[in-house]
Structures are given as C-alpha cells and as structure tokens.
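Handout, section B. The chain below has 331 residues.
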Amino acid sequence: MKALVYTGPEEVTYRDEPDPVAGAGNAIVRIDSVGICGSDMHAFHGNDPRRVPPLILGHEASGVVETGDWDGRRVVINPLISCGRCDDCLGGRSNLCGERQLIGMAVPGAFAERIAIPEANLIPMPDGMDPALAALTEPAATSLHAVNLAARAAHRPLSEARALVLGGGSIGLFAALCLRRHGCPDIALGDTNPLRRQTAESIGVARVYDPLGGSGLPAADAIDVVIDAVGTAATRQAAVAAVRPGGVIIHIGLLDSGGELDVRKMTLAEITFIGTYTYTMVDLRATLEALHSGGLGSLDWIDRRPLSEGLAAFRDLDAGRGAPKIILHPS
C-alpha cells in the first residue's frame, strides 16, 4: 500500500509500505480521509521523542471497514487504544488509561491507504456524511471534552461567561464553536497567524485579535474561562493575566513545557487550572453527531488534498499557509 511516512526531521515520504494485518479483535480500515494534527507537525519538526522515524503518522481518520463483522461499514476511528480493564477505563476515563496508545505514535497511523485498528475503536458514520467532515471528529472531540470540563468547573454557566480562546488552529476554532454551542455570549479568539485570524473572522464565532498588537486585546482580570489551545510559555502567561478572580483556565496545547506561571495570582484569586487530554468514546460519539447535524457550523474552512501531496501540505502548515485543517485523501 501507499503511505506517507515520517522519515526524519522536516521530511515525510510518500512510498510503498507493507499492508497491515488484522490480528485478533482488529479490523482493516481503508482510509478515506485523514487530517494533519498539530502533534503530527511537532513530530515533523523532530521535537517528539515518542515518535521515532520511520513511522506512519496520522490519527484523525475516517474510512470503510474491509474485514470482519464490520465489513463494508463507513466508520470514524477512535485513535486512542486503551486497555479496557483498568479503573480509569472502567470508570469512563479511558483517555487516562496508563496503557493507552495513540496510533501514529508507537504504532502505525492513518496516513496510509489502510490501517489495522481494534473493532472496539470503530464508530459508525451517519448515513450520507462527508468522510472529510467525519475525519474532524477527533480534533473536535478534543475541544468538546475541554469545553465540557470548563462547564463543570466554572462558577457560573457558560451561557453567562466571558470566554477567551488562545490559538486559531482547528482545536481553538472548535473550542470557540463548542463554547457558542453552550450559549456563551462573549468569545474572543487570539492568533498571531493572519490567515487563521481571517478564517476565524469568516466563521463569525468570536471577536478575533492579534496577540502581538492592535485592538481587541482582552482586559486583564476580566475573563471567566480561558482555553489555551497553543500551550506555550507566552500563552500560559497570557491566560493567567486575562483570567478573572474565580475563573478557569483550560490547558489543551502542548507546544512546549517551559516558562513560569503567576502562582501568586492563581492562589490569591482562586484560579482553577485544568489540564485536558483528548476525549472519551462518548465524547467522540457526541462530537460526530454534532458535526453531522451542523451543530458546529458549516465546516467549509477545511482544505482537501491528495495524500501523495502530503509533504507540500506539511510545509504549507509549517510556513503558516493554508487552512486551519488540511485533510488528506489516500485515493
């Protein structure tokens, strides 16, 4: 089969790879659509020691099952493989499973014509749904999970909250869309990339501003819920500066782990800081339904390209060009 393989820093190669083999409990899925994630870009830069080349990246995928009881069914893949036996899995928090694996990290991912995946990780795709939009389920579920955590932690309902999203990539955009779905009346979104700001403005989900200057910067100590979809020292500092006393910071992004937090403010102002990782199967199912029903907007801001042009797509994203989400198609 053809696959896009991470072969070294700044390099992904479109080449022949062995066909996957379905072991016990697994299915073979022919990939229709797969998105490029920020974590794939992190690996592309050679900054993720967990992703060792040569490796097939990619984990935001939809396709058609070719084996077993699910043969012929159109599905979305849950890329997070958990043990199903530990307390976290049995308690509905499989994203915290100590034995979890993410495809495209330690095992081959979905930048390929086919992938082997446990049948338990398959979610039926609604009839008539565009597979490219279905492939957005994984990133959108990450945002939905984060916003649900914010809703539980916030002192007042999100429908009464002022919110700030840091980052206008797909996770940040979906976070803003999920906040709007909760009825949040006042959402600001900051991004340094002018193309991402333009996309966010065209969607109309938030007041968009440039964190490096200009108008629209949020006032200090004024925001009820801040969602950091970037995860740098600068965005963490911006989040703490903007959040109001008693407010909530939701930290999704993992771009770096350096820098310091204003722990004095967080303590004296009773700031709630929550790290959030991926999603549960229930989150994925709820997100897929929201995408299909139009609950998260038209989603016409994605960019579709052949898998064979994957290197150019990675380079465009690296240079800040193109849509917040590029979807690759193996065929």
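Note. Residues 141-275 form a domain with the Rossmann fold fold (CATH 3.40.50.720). Compare this with the example in section A.
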